[in-house]
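Hey, resending since the last one bounced:
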Amino acid sequence: MPKLHELAKTIRSKNAGVNQVTFDVIFPDAASYDRVRRSGALSRASVSALFRIPPERISDHVEFDLANAIKFTLYRERPSGSPGDWDILGCQFYGPLVDLDVP
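The structure tokens again:
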């Protein structure tokens, strides 16, 4: 079973304002994109389970066929830069995605 990093060319996260982090998973071709999309590995429910968050913390989830990309945005637990925030820029949130198994 391949890992997401073996199928995607880009896996990244970044701030989307002070209260959200957005994730981009971009694939090199339609076949890889379709495989992941059809598998449900990055569905709303799967993302919720992977990040151990309630589904209400997912503000957006988009499968963008023209770009061979899946994008989703999560509400942060606390605003960026506030006490207890461990990643001010949101660029380290993508970690759990890297070794995600894709059936």
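The longest strand covers residues 20-26.

Sorry for the duplicate.
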